[in-house]
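<derive_structure_tokens>
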Amino acid sequence: MGQFREVTSGRRVVQKLYITIMLWFVGRAIVAAYKSDPEVRREFDTLPGGFTFSLGVLPVGPRMVIRKEQDGKVRYLGQGKGEVMDLDLTIKHMQAFFMILSFQESTSTANARARLYVDGGVPEACAVVRVLDVVQVHLLPKFIAKLAVKRYPAWSWTRHILVRSKVYLRTVTGI
């Protein structure tokens, strides 16, 4: 039949860069939402002090780590190398994570399609996913956020405008 050229998969540099930037931004936005949004604060209040969770991609892809300190404050720890995790949310592969972070697939759909691994307690994982959903609603325009979350919330106008503005400002400035 002839000779066939061996085809190997690409390194997906652009996808990895996009995911890394998005995780950095979302990590900072979680901290900003904790400071600005009472719903996010309530979710974090249910978690114990010293609770650390991560969201990343297998096998050794980008990762973000968030910790709730003993005093109740929430901190973004970056890649969190060497941190002990109480909850580790891991997406199967880079393409699945890209679909989630490019808002082609919601977190709940990815979970239903077995693309999300959870290592830790289920109640804590549900709280973290709820926080991620609220943060996505704050960060994204409505027509995109509807694709990213299971149900778009019916918030008041002031919450949409004022809290969203605070989240953006604190995410960008880090205050």
